[in-house]
Amino acid sequence: MDPPRPTRNAPADDLLELVHGVARELQLREEAPSGRWVEETAIALRSGAQGGLYLPVSSGGGVAFRAERDALSFAHVHVVPGAEALERAETLTRALLDGLPPAVRSVSVGFTGLSLELEETLTRRLSERPGSTVIRRFAMERPLRSRDGEGLPPVPDALRIVAVREVTLEALAALDRRAFQGSVDELLIGSDPEEYRRTVSAILDGAVGRFLDEASAALYRPDPPELVGAILTCEKTPRRAVFQDFMVDPGNRGRGYGAYLIHWAFRALWALGYERVRLWVSAANETARRLYDSVGFSVTATAVIYRWDRGDTAAQPQSAR
Description:
By secondary structure, the protein is of the alpha+beta class. It has helices spanning 12-28, 37-47, 85-98, 116-126, 169-180, 186-189, 193-204, 257-272, 286-294; strands spanning 5-6, 52-55, 62-69, 72-79, 106-112, 132-143, 160-163, 217-222, 225-237, 240-248, 276-282, 298-309.
């Protein structure tokens, strides 16, 4: 197989076809990017503004691209399904890893175009590289039912439930960071407070789907003042919603606050006319998975993320979220 070529040398038609393929695969997982993402990504890859590699469509086709934020890199590898798809994905991923700038400390890579079985085979092969971590994530869904529209008990422990937009972005980002700290999910975002601010801001701004103010809320303790939890909900289709972010302060876990927020959001979504809600959770996050199981979610899909850390920076977080 020929080595991958820089995307800045790719024919425009090839690159558009490959990036459209990424969008189609993400759409099937209800993770499709919004706006003119396909066109803008293809332009950035051809101009060299965004780093990437490709294999010509005539030889099966595939594309790998990345974005850097400080010392972290977030990458995606897509191959056209078909003969030698696994080999094409492995060739692209290894070339991407080998070509990382020295300043990049770590990279998280997602995949499309492969079956789950092939993703597992690919990440098993890649795991031979020192500093590797494989993160399995589950999509979980739950139908909304008429009983979800029934009344809720009082807010626990004299807390107040408030609209998310009554909370400052800085406070939400700080809570999100505390909630992820020490968990496998922290590998996907990092430890930089600015990353959490950027993530929460994108959700509130509708970058990952129309933000549903009416089905998003925060739990607040007025005395002493403390933000203890929040749930951020977005629309994926007129009938389906997603819990895009769910956070409970580590010092306030085990008190039923998370379950209360989820049931509150169920009630709001039922009143708004949604039929189903979904979320993503890392397989290693057993505490969160037990909560989601207990309120009626079930696994509907699995995705694999490959993480590589340079040198002795490899992280070994515990699942504590």
